[in-house]
Amino acid sequence: MRLVTALTPEAAPLIEHYRLEKVNSSSMFPLYRNDNIYLVVSGIGKTLAAAATAYLHAMSGELPNQLFLNIGIAGHRRAITGASRVASRITDQSTGQTWYPSQIICDSLDRSPLITVETVERVYAEDAAYDMEAAGFYPIALRASTAELVQSLKVISDHPGEPVADLDLQRIQDLIGNSIDEIDSLVKALQGLADIVTSTIPKSYSLDPFIERWHFTVTQRHRLRRVLERWAVLEKDESPLTSVPSDCPSARDTIEALENALVAKRLDLHEPAAPNRPELS
Amino acid sequence: MIQTIYIERQVADHPRTRKILARFPDAHQIDCDRYTEIFNPKNQNFRLQKQQPALIIAHKFGKRVLSAPEGYGVGGQHNYYFSHMLNCIYDCRYCFLQGMYRSAHYVLFINYDDFFESMDRALANHPGEDVWFFSGYDCDSLALDPVTGFAAHLLTFLESRQRAFAELRTKSTQIRALLSVPAIPNAIVAFSLTPTETADRFEHKAPPISKRLQAMRQLADKGWPLGLRFDPLIFDDAFKNRYQRLFEEVFSVLAPETLHSVTVGPFRMPQRFFRNLVRLYPSEPLFASPFQNRSGSVSYSAAQEEEMIGFCREELAAYVPPERLFSCSVDTRQHWNPPAQVPQAAGAPTQ
Predict the structure, then answer these.
(1) What is the model's pLDDT at position A26?
(2) SS3 for A223?
């Protein structure tokens, strides 16, 4: 999981909850981690949020299909201080650009449109949450992962009757800390989705035993990879090497031997399939 | 069932929109400019979205009725297709929609009248001739009909246009709109069927074959012309046994005289779509089958297709006269009946 917060008080409850430790070598942005979770503190504003999100992706190994979650405070027109809201729509107020975060696991969570502004919001003209980072975070996170695994959750900290000037660092920390259960609930739901995505990573036999013995062109390697992927699905318990004669003269003949061996094998597509997807919480 | 509804702002006040929203009072509503903002972006995962598809209510601009591919049809000379809806509530593992679309959300175009206007223009382009309109390419024609109410509008349109023929392709048992009005001869309800074990294994969320046959029987009893669509044919070692039993089951319920047409078509799909399916479900044995790349499509070998179609032809011939049997394959376009022998509306008979 990759967490992006703007402020240290927003990060503090998450650092404590997930037992993250500071990565001392980080210089551009404060970075924290445990075995599975990385957190970056970006600073205020969408430019820094975008930069920090990209930095986070790079520093965490650029792995595909990771959860990206932007957590922070936001203002709202309604007096709902302390309430958490998942962004149903993110709009960059200065450009008008709009994104629609996936809502597929959000039915049990309260949602709100989110408007990213350049300066602290004091007018709250629309019935929406107002922040300063999401429109920077979201498009970058989208490049790093799949849309369904990228979300922005805001805890409402100010409204027209309770302006942001009244906020202090401890109050911000308390607001996020009091929403840890909702945050965790969202994280677990997203993790359920991520588990489905990781289950789509194809398993295959290694190409190495083949490319060590025969010369494969690039195109032939693609064909070999595909037939080995098919082999891994259809013939889990039998090594494909057993179907290739040791005196097979060429890469092309090797591929054909494998493909012909699969055609000759018993094909039963109606065995009970593995469960399509784990239950979402 | 539907927990998020996106609404294009321009249709927010449409009576149909309000009616649909009233059906889902607890759904979270999100307004947008165009459905493409949600439906088109890259980096979406169709498989994940199938967990909980949203509904997008939109207005269809541009071409609403398109010419069907060359050779597509069940006996008509002039063939068109339309999609008042994108995506399907069922989750059939072999479905090409997973490969074609980035998003699994349902898009409903509520400007039905514009579709019918386009159909009228197509009819005007072929004065005095029958024209076919195929529904069910991008969605199941009836599965969401309780929400959309589209079928009732289509039937009203067809009732006064005897040259217009429509096929409603479906796996659904949502046939109330048809049972509540007298049957008309130019609306063919065509059910997609596979062997029960195949349906259980691959056709997630779709009604079981027995229920579809029950629905077909109810329609037949009311005089609705029916179509049988054995498509896709899926091969494995028990293919012949499974399809033999399927045909026996079908014709134990349906009288052949109630059938307008029967088609068979082996599994086939554009290569690009198939690659997406494999990416989504790399452990699915069906996609590891010994398919070939032929004429830009992934399909069984020509010999395999011929064998599958030939077997089905032979079995079905015991029940259905040959002039009502059609087939489709990737590059042979073989058909059992030269156009001259096709009753009613002559023409190229394959899908």
Answers:
(1) 64
(2) helix
Choice among A39-53, B17-31, B317-331 with the minimum mean pLDDT: B317-331
The letter for the amino acid at A96 is G
Q: What is the predicted pLDDT for the residue at A108?
A: 79
**Would you give the DSSP letter of residue A147?**
G
- Distance between CA atoms of A123 and A160, rounded to whole angstroms? 7
- How many CB pairs below 8 Å do chains A and B form together? 122
Contact B48 A197 (CB under 8 A): yes
Which amino acid, residue A123? V
Q: Report the amino acid identity of residue B242.
A: R
> What is the rounded CA–CA span in Å between residue A185 and residue A180?
8
**Least CB–CB distance from B49: residue in A104, A234, A273:** A104
- Report the alpha-carbon distance of residue A39 to residue B206 in Å, rounded: 43
Give the type of residue at B47: R
Contact present, B117 and B67 (Cβ < 8 Å): no
Looking at the complex, report in whole angstroms how far the Cα of residue A89 sits from the nearest Cα belonging to chain B. Answer: 8
Cβ neighbourhood burial of B346 (10 Å; 0-12, 13-18, 19+) = middle
Q: At what angle do helices B239-253 and B209-221 cross, to 10 degrees?
A: 30
Write the pLDDT tens digit of every residue in B32-76.
999 999 999 999 999 999 999 999 999 999 999 999 877 777 878
pTM for the structure as a whole = 0.92
